[in-house]
Design brief:
heterodimer, A: alpha/beta, B: about 450 residues, mainly alpha, about 75% helix
């Protein structure tokens, strides 16, 4: 069974020109960890999610490579983060994407599940030729199959 | 050391040409940065052995295990100690002592960097201090550039003051038998002059314009440095062992104890007391973590380089070059000392100072007869140490610590560009070398 058989083919998708505010709205309303982002042709560009948002809002020294691994001495930063969010919410998400490893429509299911297990977030499913986004595989898509709530295609 | 001369060089080539050729190629490849410098050093060292210039035994004899042991031991000690959070504590404590005033913080972070750099290697120092600096400048809403610029200088200047502060000093000290105290008492005073002198232009260019809002300063003042200490027990253990190591460096030389023995024993002691309560599996895991943080690339680079320089030295080529240098300086100690200081400084600003110093050590040693014995060479060693360590400030590629800071700056959105940095840094480096020249001339010549 290929990945295309278990994917959700109608996920919420962000456009590269969307604002951070719009992305956050989708993420918060639907409790998503991240959402796939595509260009005008529908080609996959990456994902935008809570990690990218936190990265923008937290002090750079904490989220950069080889930065501080912890900062128990910094207190009361939520108000600061709100201020920072207000300042950046109009920016486009395209500059803050993360390249999450995708799978392809013909990728075997087990391989797609392994990618899901490793990335710990919904996996984008692409068309191998055009790189266009066809859908995503989430934990819930897999769960529905495993529990038999959704039947395998014949 | 030319006693261990070449055996049978490949294709019957002249040993001096063969060794000299490989040496030049080594330098060129290191400068090109096309291949990792450790790979270059290991490959060229291998060619020297396989090419018949020396046997494997002779090659191993060329490696200064005192330098390797000292570096490896200190890397392990720092790797364990940093987990306690003591370095963050120190940086935040320093920033708060000046009421989070922007220029005061810069001065305090410079002092912390210089102090740590004198006791640890420069790269480790900036890895510890720069992230805290970025956190503070972020809170103050100030550009991190002047802080990072000043910390590069502080790391290289502070490291100049001690035997263990900078790799060139470790190499010179172990090759010549100079102690921790020798470095501290001979280079400490000039470092104490250079550091404030360097801060004056930094103040005039950036410092006097630094202003932070009261609210932002309050944010820095709200940092609780005590909370930075994540493991008070580890802190006590690490400080205890660090004190023993320092004492070993200071008094050990008189009892014939080499710095590598002190550092390696200190590392072993710290590993023992921190792992004692752990179960076997946890010990293995902790040990793997500590060993993984040892900079093996640096250590293998050193080993390869020692073999290459030993190979060149065994052909008598360095003696030949030294004769030419002495002819050029007229055999005058003062002229030679100044020449070494300035050439080392300019060279270290543009090329890696480690291969340069590795080459210069046997070169200077071979001048002993001309100047009346090894004792007479003392001013030359201080010239080499000052030139090589301070010269690293001249450009972004002058020292490994500089490149580490550049990496941090880029990742945090404060790009440090090569030319603008050099336009400021090179004259400041020349200022430090001018001060060093006066110091050496007044004190030793």
């Amino acid at each position: 069974m290929p990945a295309s058989d278990i994917m959700d083919s109608g996920p919420i998708v962000l456009q590269s020109t969307d604002s951070i505010e719009l992305a956050v709205q989708h993420i918060m309303e639907n409790r998503f960890r991240n959402l796939p982002v595509v260009d005008v042709k529908g080609c996959y560009l990456g994902v935008f999610g809570v990690n990218q948002l936190l990265k923008m809002l937290m002090p750079t020294a904490l989220v950069m490579d080889h930065g501080l691994t912890n900062a128990p001495f910094v207190h009361g930063t939520v108000r600061e983060m709100s201020k920072k969010y207000a300042a950046i919410k109009g920016n486009r998400i395209v500059d803050h994407l993360e390249m999450q490893e995708p799978v392809y429509a013909d990728t075997p299911t087990l391989e797609a599940m392994l990618t899901l297990y490793k990335s710990r977030a919904s996996v984008p499913v692409l068309d191998r030729e055009s790189n266009c986004l066809l859908g995503v595989i989430s934990y819930w898509d897999v769960g529905e199959r495993v529990l038999g709530w959704k039947k395998d295609p014949a | 050391m030319s006693a261990s001369g070449p055996t049978q060089v490949l294709l019957g080539l002249d040993p001096q040409w063969f060794a000299g050729g490989l040496f030049v190629i080594t330098y060129a490849l290191i400068m090109s940065e096309r291949v990792n410098r450790a790979i270059v050093a290991m490959f060229m060292a291998g060619l020297m052995v396989l090419g018949g210039l020396m046997s494997q035994q002779q090659a191993v004899q060329g490696v200064d295990f005192n330098t390797i042991g000292l570096l490896a031991g200190m890397m392990m000690v720092v790797s364990i100690t940093k987990e306690s959070g003591v370095f963050q504590f120190l940086a935040i404590w320093a920033a708060k002592r000046v009421d989070a005033h922007p220029w005061g913080i810069l001065v305090m972070l410079v002092l912390v960097t210089a102090f740590l750099s004198a006791l640890l290697d420069n790269v480790t120092t900036v890895l510890l201090v720069v992230p805290v600096t970025l956190l503070i400048t972020d809170a103050l809403k100030l550009s991190a550039y002047p802080y990072l610029f000043a910390e590069i200088f502080a790391a290289n200047i502070g490291g100049t003051a001690t035997l263990i502060g900078d790799p060139p000093n470790i190499m010179i000290g172990t090759a010549v038998g100079l102690s921790f105290n020798d470095f501290l008492f001979n280079l400490g005073p000039v470092v104490a002059l250079i550091m404030p002198a360097t801060l004056i232009p930094i103040y005039l260019i950036w410092g006097r314009k630094m202003v932070a809002a009261a609210e932002d300063r309050e944010r820095v003042m709200s940092f609780r440095e005590r909370d930075a200490i994540r493991d008070p027990r580890l802190l006590k253990q690490a400080l205890f062992v660090l004190s023993l190591i320092l004492a070993g460096f200071i008094v050990g030389h008189g009892y014939g104890m080499e710095p590598a023995s002190t550092a390696m024993f200190g590392a072993a002691l710290l590993l023992l007391i921190t792992n004692w309560p752990r179960k076997a599996e946890a010990q293995t895991k902790a040990l793997e973590k500590t060993f993984s943080e040892v900079e093996w690339i640096t250590l293998f680079f050193f080993m390869g380089l020692f073999i290459i320089v030993h190979g060149v030295e065994s052909t008598g080529l360095l003696e030949l070059i030294s004769e030419h240098i002495l002819a050029a300086t007229g055999g005058d100690l003062s002229v030679t000392a100044m020449a070494i200081l300035w050439v080392a400084a300019v060279a270290s600003a543009v090329v890696d100072n480690i291969p340069f110093v590795a080459t210069m050590i046997p070169l200077i040693q071979s001048m002993a007869a001309e100047f009346g014995g090894p004792q007479a060479l003392t001013p030359l060693w201080w010239s080499l140490a000052l030139g090589a360590c301070l010269g690293g400030n001249g450009s972004l590629v002058g020292a490994s610590a500089n490149l580490i800071v550049v990496g941090f700056a880029e990742r945090s959105g404060h790009v440090i560009r090569f030319l603008p940095f050099m336009m400021m840094a090179f004259p400041l480096m020349l200022l430090s070398i001018t001060i060093s020249s006066v110091y050496i001339w007044l004190r030793y010549l």
